[in-house]
Amino acid sequence: MRVPLASLGAIVAGVAVTALTATLMDMAMHAAGVFPSPPQAMSDPLFVLAAAYRAAFTIAGGYATARLAPDRPMRHAWILSGIGLAAGLAGVAAYYAEGGGRLGPAWYALAIPLEAVPCVWLGARLAVSRRAPDERPA
């Protein structure tokens, strides 16, 4: 029972690191006046900034999942990346359902799911490379 709970905890931690940090950063950027208040539109450079920090937080989520995984850290990371990809694709569907361009550029909506898999993978690889030799997967 401990291993399934630890596995679930590792994946939930990765989701939390990714989603909570991105949401908190969005709030901070709005509060600091870097991002405009709705309904004002953001410029493309601000969307680039948001995509960049979301990528960094996604790497951190992959790292956290792999470090906390009780075994097979890359398997846990692949599960996390699948969750991120699914959530990102849901965001793309919502983007188009809500009228697309009113919410921002299409490239940004598409960038979120596209960066999920490689960013989680990178974070997990970094975590695995920092494990003690006897903890590394064969």
Write the layout of secondary structure elements.
Blueprint lengths: L1 H30 L12 H25 L4 H25 L8 H24 L9
Helix pairs in contact: 1-2, 1-3, 2-3, 2-4, 3-4
What does this structure look like?
The chain is mainly alpha-helical and 138 residues long. It has one domain (2-135). The chain contains 4 helices and no strands. The chain has helices at 2-31, 44-68, 73-97, 106-129. Helix 1 crosses helix 3 and helix 2 (44-68) packs parallel to helix 4. The model has no long low-confidence stretch (mean pLDDT 91).
Task: Give the helix/strand class.
Answer: mainly alpha
Overall pLDDT metric? 91
Helix content percent band = over 70%
Question: What radius of gyration results from the CA coordinates?
Answer: 16 Å
What is the count of DSSP helices, taking H or I runs of 4+ residues?
4
Sheet of most strands? none
Number of domains: 1
Q: Give the number of DSSP strands.
A: 0
Gross morphology is elongated
Low-confidence stretches: none
The secondary-structure element order is HHHH
Gap from first CA to last CA: 24 Å
What would you say about this model in short?
The chain has 138 residues and is an all-alpha fold. It is built from 4 helices and no strands.
List keywords for this structure.
single chain, 138 residues, mainly alpha, 4 helices, elongated
